[in-house]
Amino acid sequence: MLLNKHVIVGICGGIACYKAVDLVSKLQQAGALVDVVLTEKADEFVRPLTFATVSHRPVYSDLWEPSGEAAENHIRLAEEADILAIVPATANTIAKLAHGIVDNMLTAVALATQAPLLLAPAMYKHMYTHPATQANLALLRERGAFLVEPEVGRLASGAIGPGRLPDTETLLGAIKLVLGKKGDLAGCRVVVTAGGTQEPIDPVRYVGNRSSGKMGYALAEEARDRGAHVVLISGPVSLPVPYGVELRRVETAAQMQAAVFSAVTNADVLIMSAAVADFRPAHPASQKIKKRLGGGRGAGEGENTGEQATDGSFSLHLIKNPDILGELAQMQDLPRRLVRVGFAAETENVVENAKDKLHRKQLDLLVANDVTRSDSGFGTNTNKVTLFHANGVMEDLPVMPKTGVAAAIWDRVVSLLS
């Protein structure tokens, strides 16, 4: 996504500018061409050499240097830029941009460029909430600028409130989102499911699986980076929420079914990468089941969660969960053509089981993997998948990071949409 993108990072004179060092470094590591432009006060917080070291490129700051090269540089930078991200954006610079004031290198580049403008404000809480700052931000948004809202937290002054610069991952997500506005999924609404489900036995225990959600979250981020509006329906996972993605949390298969059926009514694509439990306890206990009592007795009046044998073993009564993709295949009243992609996590007979699922659930594409492999199982950062197409084509992809698998899947979905 960021490879060979020309990203200009504007740095204003605020204490939060030290965080921009990590952002510039991460952009460079992702393959972006990063040019840093400092305001005259920013280099009193972080020296230009620091940014030059992590960007591997010159740093620009003085519009009035005697050689006259800056006059050419600000135009060159403006014309070459794919995006101008001002991180942090101070109240002073925001006011200048809103009213077209050009008195330094950064504001000159900002006024000259046709690239999208991304602002990440960071300042004292009352400066951010001041009507003047809010009016300036509103004016810039009306003109097409994108805003990364500051976080509420502890500020440099020691106060607690809005004005804290978000972390690097959030800023990277915002930059990718803006760069992807003209991607090959622009205008599409996609639904991605991720993670496993948890079916309660009692308020303490549940029936679950080993899914980490990493594949689904990678799919959601890739779709966002291509310009799609993404609804991510996630079971319980320990992953950060991708920036710019609409997250809907669920726990059980029934909750996921309801969320999916609601989301697909105006969607173009559904990718079911979640590991949905096939079975659930028939009668979850309302209170914790005690080992000494066993079964549902003592867990709640009239409950029959399971049965305890005389040897102390316990049998749990399970019933089938709804088949979300199977039921979707039978629905005739969807308002538009829905591209459907399923996943099959197998431990044996991968090809046979995948082909059966593909046709039985009327999918356009099925992604199958052998979860017994060490490089393709639950929780890994890589995946080894085989793609099964509705027309009978089978693609065996090499082991690659889950981000790469996500890109490959969306490449095929884009072809199906077109």
Automatic annotation (TrEMBL):
Query: Per the record, what are the reactions this protein catalyses?
Result: (R)-4'-phosphopantothenate + L-cysteine + CTP = N-[(R)-4-phosphopantothenoyl]-L-cysteine + CMP + diphosphate + H(+); N-[(R)-4-phosphopantothenoyl]-L-cysteine + H(+) = (R)-4'-phosphopantetheine + CO2
- Tell me yes or no: is Ribosomal protein among this UniProt entry's keywords: no
Phosphopantothenoylcysteine decarboxylase: annotated segments? 1-189
Q: Which UniProt keywords apply?
A: Decarboxylase, Flavoprotein, FMN, Ligase, Lyase, Magnesium, Metal-binding, Multifunctional enzyme
Q: What is its EC number?
A: 4.1.1.36, 6.3.2.5
What are the GO cellular component annotations?
Answer: phosphopantothenoylcysteine decarboxylase complex
Cofactor, how bound (note): Binds 1 FMN per subunit.
Phosphopantothenate--cysteine ligase: region residues: 190-418
Q: Membrane spanning segments where?
A: none
The entry's CTP-binding residues are D278, K288, P322, D323, I324, L325, F343, K357, K361
Q: Name one GO biological process term.
A: pantothenate catabolic process
One GO MF term: phosphopantothenate--cysteine ligase activity
Superkingdom of this protein's organism: Bacteria
Which family is this sequence assigned to? In the N-terminal section; belongs to the HFCD (homo-oligomeric flavin containing Cys decarboxylase) superfamily. In the C-terminal section; belongs to the PPC synthetase family.
Indicate what this protein is called per its UniProt record.
Coenzyme A biosynthesis bifunctional protein CoaBC
Q: Which organism is it from?
A: Thermosporothrix hazakensis
